[in-house]
Write a structure and sequence with these properties.
Blueprint: E1 5-10, H1 17-23, E2 25-28, E3 31-34, E4 37-40, H2 47-55, E5 60-63, H3 67-79, E6 84-89, H4 97-105, E7 112-116, H5 122-136, H6 141-153, E8 155-160, H7 165-169, H8 175-183, E9 187-193, E10 196-203, H9 206-221, E11 226-232, H10 236-249, E12 253-260, H11 263-269, E13 274-280
Helix pairs in contact: 3-4, 5-6, 9-10
């Protein structure tokens, strides 16, 4: 879709493809390396293949897009009519994606505003949707940036992982915290706070942790109008059941997305992940 302000994000937004097409959002892919093979997220590797590789303890690493990938995207959008671009990306605490986009923006043929949303997964996706809707209604580049930032401030993400080991391997939490959780057989509940992963609660069993995740979301949303995304990795039944319970418990629920996360975030969380993103409208 050609319009005055184009919206770019990255593959870790995990936006549904129909929504991306409808709103004309472009996603630049991050890369997953399994052993010695590199794959672009969203196009060359499935989350299920990643889960199988992790279970086999295959070496898995991730890398940001190059500045040239962003530069090519910005040039293509300018060539198809964009007069300005808003480029929204996952937390710079997790990846150098934001830095790569900033480098590319300096040489872009049209003005580009690069935003570190501090978010990831559909927490980032909801920001991109807010920016796209603003641009579609005739808003300026600054209007779209403000809409994304406002949505980020109104968005929270909570998640459960079967083990902290994958987060430790990726450097997302400290070794001491991971060891403590493993030693006590704790099932951790985590949250995204100021662009970082932080401990929320420690629960003894998986079933209790998932029940508590549901309770936290219901308690913190109340009757306010919200959109929710439920993410998982290799746990579709758990995710579907959780989504149905949230549908019953959140009276102000608008959109409800259920999806498997991609390989980049999955590499750091491991199979069994359940995540809930809550975004106030």
């Amino acid at each position: 879709m050609s319009r005055h302000v184009a919206i770019v994000t990255d593959s870790t937004a995990y936006l549904p493809q129909p929504a991306m097409r409808r709103h004309g959002i472009t996603a630049v892919p991050l890369t997953v390396v399994l052993g010695d093979q590199a794959y672009e997220e969203g196009t060359e590797i499935s989350a299920r293949s990643l889960a199988q590789a992790l279970q086999k303890r295959t070496s898995v690493t991730t890398s940001r897009p190059s500045p040239e990938q962003f530069a090519a995207t910005y040039r293509e959008l300018a060539a198809t009519g964009a007069e300005a671009i808003v480029s929204l990306h996952l937390s710079s605490e997790f990846s150098g994606t934001y830095d790569a986009a900033v480098l590319a923006a300096r040489e872009a043929p049209v003005p580009v505003r690069v935003v570190d949303t501090g978010m990831v997964a559909m927490a980032l996706g909801f920001c991109a949707l807010a920016a796209a809707e603003t641009a579609e209604s005739g808003g300026s580049m600054e209007d779209a940036v403000l809409a994304a930032q406002k949505r980020a401030e109104a968005t929270s993400a909570y998640f459960y992982v079967d083990t902290l080991d994958y987060l430790r391997r990726g450097g997302r939490i400290g070794a001491a915290q991971a060891l403590f959780g493993s030693a006590l057989a704790v099932k951790p509940l985590l949250q995204l706070h100021e662009g970082r992963i932080e401990s929320l609660e420690k629960v003894r069993t998986a079933s209790r942790a998932i029940a508590r995740l549901e309770e936290i979301v219901a308690e913190r949303t109340g009757s306010a109008p919200v959109d929710i995304a439920v993410h998982h990795l290799a746990a579709p039944e758990r995710a579907a059941a959780l989504a149905e319970r949230l549908r019953e418990r959140v009276p102000g629920l608008g959109e409800l997305h259920v999806s498997e996360i991609g390989a980049v975030i999955g590499a750091h969380t491991g199979p069994g992940l359940l995540g809930v993103v809550v975004s106030s409208r």
